[in-house]
Automatic annotation (TrEMBL):
Domain DUF2007 positions: 4-68
InterPro entries in the cross-refs: DUF2007 (IPR018551), DUF7577 (IPR055999)
Highest rank taxon of the organism: Bacteria
Name the UniProt record assigns to this protein: DUF2007 domain-containing protein
Amino acid sequence: MNDWIRVFDAANSLEAHALKGALESRGIDVRLKGEALSGALGELPMDVAQITLLVSAGNWQQAREFVQHYQHKEDGSWFCRACGEENDVSFEICWQCGSGPEGPE
Ligand SMILES: [Zn+2]
């Protein structure tokens, strides 16, 4: 049995996907709940309802620590939209994959 537990409520699809990518890059599987409204469009609308991130029980503690770290970021760091990697504010493109803050070309 594999329980999925809420770890974070994202304000929008973009944030949800950024966090999902970042967690998955750390080996944590993530499910998104509440995305049905926008799923068929293939876009990431900014104004959809809140999206809940779920992780399996075994990953919850690690995911929670990461999310808390993410939430407390106020130094301008950003998460790559293409690969989910965290980038320091001084980087204009993702050090991991070379994408800009606005995503891949
Ligand atoms: Zn990247």
